[in-house]
Structure formats: structure tokens, C-alpha cells
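Ticket #4471: structure output looks truncated?

Reporter: J.K.
Steps to reproduce: submitted the chain below (125 residues) through the standard prediction queue, then opened the result file.
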Amino acid sequence: MIREKAEVSRLEMLQALIVTSLEDDKAENVIALDLAGRASFADRMVIASGLADRQIAAMAAHLEEKLHKAGLKRIQMEGAGGSDWVLIDAGDIVIHLFKPEARALYALERMWGSDLDDEEPGEPV
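Returned output as attached by the reporter:
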């Protein structure tokens, strides 16, 4: 299945809303990755850390509320019931909220980061 790329200005607005919301909730190490042309499931990915289950749950709830107000009606969330990782699928943007240990374990930045594009073939990851 081929996805159409989202309108860039809309994506940038949603990404800014997400990053601002996470920063307001004291998320740590918030990063946004551009996946356009690299992934079929989304054009952007935002990754952030929270120190406790309650903080991560609050960040997820605030994001869901703000994304609904921004006009997104089909937001899917996994793991919000108290886990080390909450995934929020907002269509063109996917948000991952981790406890630091889980974030280090899954290493999504290494998997999807732009520095992978710079590596030579056969170079260890």
C-alpha cells in the first residue's frame, strides 16, 4: 500500500504542537525524525522520554487532547495503561513515549536516524 505524503505545512504544524506539548510536560530528550520517503507508515516520528508511568500517561493524554483539538479524529494509542512505552499513531506522525531504559533498549533513533543515511554499505551499525 502506497501512502501519499501529507502536506508539509500541516505536518510542520502538527510536529510543532507535539514537541511543544511534550516540552510543556517536561519530557526529556525530545527528537523529531523526518521519515518521508523512508517509511511507509508515517512521514514523521517524534520520540521522547518520561521518568515515570504517570508522567508518560499524562503526556499521552495531553497529546491526544491537543491533537483532537487540531482536527485529528483517528488517533490510536497503545500502552497508555502504564507501561515503559506508549505509542501514539496520529496518522502522518507517530509518537513514541519511553522510560529511559526502554528507549535505550529499542534504540529507535539509531534505527531511523538520518546518520544511517551517511553510513557506507557494509559498515557496522
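Triage note (M.O.): checked the attachment and the full C-alpha cell line is present. Helices lie at 8-24, 53-69, 100-106, 108-112.
Status: closed, working as intended.
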